[in-house]
């Protein structure tokens, strides 16, 4: 599995999210599991435009994955760009959908022309 430059993997539960994701910041995350050798394998990618901690906790209530990794981003637009890169590098073949941009922006994907 390629490196994502993210912290973790950590247990994907509310307690651990609060312990590890302590800044109110945009950011990126992936969710997944560990195989029998302990290697982290992710199957879900996402981002938060404003508050990574609360986004992860809302996901933890709905999505059943044992582990997460994360990174902070300086801006929401940087988080969007990184999510697009992760999507094109790792997630395009699965059932993941292309990341969406916020409706009030004209941000473009760095890798494709889905946003004209
Ligand atoms: Zn794209």
Can you walk me through this structure?
With 116 residues, the chain is of the alpha+beta class. It contains 3 helices and 4 strands; from the N terminus they run βαββαβα. The chain has a 4-stranded antiparallel β-sheet with strand order 1-4-2-3, with helices on both faces. A hairpin with a 5-residue loop joins strand 2 and strand 3. It is globular. The termini are far apart. Bound molecules: zinc ion. The site of zinc ion has 7 residues, from helix 3.
Compact summary:
By secondary structure, this protein is an alpha+beta fold. Helices cover 28% and strands 24% of the residues. Bound molecules: zinc ion.
Mean pLDDT: 92
CATH topology type: GIY-YIG endonuclease
Could you tell me how far the N terminus lies from the C terminus, measured between alpha carbons in angstroms? 32 Å
CATH 4th-level superfamily: GIY-YIG endonuclease
Encode the helix/strand succession as letters: EHEEHEH
Kindly name the structural category: alpha+beta
Approximately what portion of the residues adopt beta-strand conformation? Answer: 15-25%
Alpha-carbon Rg, integer: 14 Å
The CATH architecture term is 3-Layer(aba) Sandwich
Number of strands: 4
CATH classification, class level? Alpha Beta
Number of domains: 1
Low-pLDDT windows of residues: none
Main sheet specs: 4 strands, antiparallel
* Discrete helix count: 3
């Amino acid at each position: 599995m390629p490196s994502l430059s993210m912290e973790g993997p950590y247990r994907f539960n509310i307690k651990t999210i609060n312990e590890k994701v302590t800044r109110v910041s945009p950011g990126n995350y992936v969710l997944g599991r560990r195989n029998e050798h302990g290697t982290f394998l992710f199957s879900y990618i996402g981002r938060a435009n404003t508050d990574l901690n609360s986004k992860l906790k809302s996901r933890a209530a709905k999505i059943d994955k044992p582990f997460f990794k994360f990174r902070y981003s300086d801006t929401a637009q940087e988080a969007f760009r990184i999510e697009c890169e992760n999507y094109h590098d790792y997630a395009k073949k699965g059932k993941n959908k292309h990341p969406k941009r916020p409706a009030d922006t004209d941000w473009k994907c760095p890798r494709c022309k889905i946003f004209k």
